Amino acid sequence: MADLPNCPQCNSQYTYENGSLLVCPECGHEWTLEVESGNSEENNIVKDANGNILNDGDSITIIKNLKVKGSTSDLKIGTKVKNIRLIVDGDHNIDCKIDGFGAMKLKSEFVKKL
């Protein structure tokens, strides 16, 4: 039997191969062995909605109206954000400060680089 790694999400030992993917039957997480082997340089690349690579300090604009939890107002399309910071925090990968809203975390799929 192949010596497969534990699930990176729930640490289950019952992982199995399904084609080129590794699958966890307990939580349903799927991943590739290349990601598990730690090709961290490739994992840290953050791209905007158009496929442009984002870097710390870039300026971006929001491409879709976004609802803000706990606020009655939304982030409007075209809102400009300066001096972003890239982070690794679940689904959100941009940390920034937006005028009129304050500190905010955004997903890169809803922004474009200026």
From TrEMBL:
Residues 4-32 form the Protein YjdM N-terminal domain. Residues 46-113 form the Protein YjdM C-terminal domain. InterPro entries: YjdM, YjdM_C, YjdM_N. It holds the Pfam family Zn_Ribbon_YjdM. Belongs to the YjdM family. This is Alkylphosphonate utilization protein.
